[in-house]
What we know:
By secondary structure, this protein is of the alpha/beta class. The chain has a single domain (4-212), classed as TIM Barrel. The chain has helices spanning 18-25, 37-42, 48-56, 73-84, 105-113, 126-135, 148-153, 158-168, 186-194, 203-206, 216-234; strands at 10-14, 30-34, 64-67, 90-95, 118-123, 142-146, 175-179, 198-202. Strands 1-2-3-4-5-6-7-8 form an 8-stranded parallel barrel, surrounded by 6 helices. Helix 5 (105-113) links the parallel strand 4 (90-95) and strand 5 (118-123). The radius of gyration is 20 Å and the shape is globular. The termini are far apart.
Amino acid sequence: MKKVEELKVKIFADGADKAGMLEMYAKPYIKGLTTNPTLMNKAGIGDYRAFAKDILSVIKDKPISFEVFSDDFKEMERQALEIAAWGDNVYVKIPVTNTKREACYSLVKKLAAQKVKLNVTAVMTTTQVKDVVEALDPKVPSYVSVFAGRIADTGRDPVPLMTQAVEILKKAPAAELIWASPRELLNIFQADAIGCQVITVTNDILKKLPLVGYDLSEYSLDTVKMFYKDALAAKYKL
Length: 238
């Protein structure tokens, strides 16, 4: 089994809690960060612009993605241009469709032509991957976020689709594939094995990194000890 430092896949921290984001940013194995409106709302963020600029006052040397939140493509464009202006390390997340199932590809092409660094998000099919790649400028840095974890939630194995996506992205040399919404630490190693360039990982999963390569016999004993300790704490009797 590879050690974390031997992996080629870049680990991006996914979250919206300032303390957690800065904690992850300080770790050398975290190569970038991402967030989204859902995470920000859960974290109680009220002022989108103020939050982003506060984070960017510290995080200036690693890529970080902020997402537009309009459902109208013209307004998405306006938001994207403002977000892009916040820093050279900023990538603008554009959803692959709006809520009306209208595709974002024209907007992606327009923004890419203006050299905006994009992160096209919520992608889940190879057709979407192909269409996004066609819209991107092959010379402008960008990300294509395929939600492998949500694909897995439907009972489908995401590995074959992600493997195909790796091949599709070869047509856009400046673009990188993101394995988004992972569900377990194993996904990091799966992403690395297929040549996926980036994986976004939440703090709860990142906390499991010390377990990588841990002896399974010891882990078994640890689990038994946990059960025993919790039973004692509960003062169970029969």
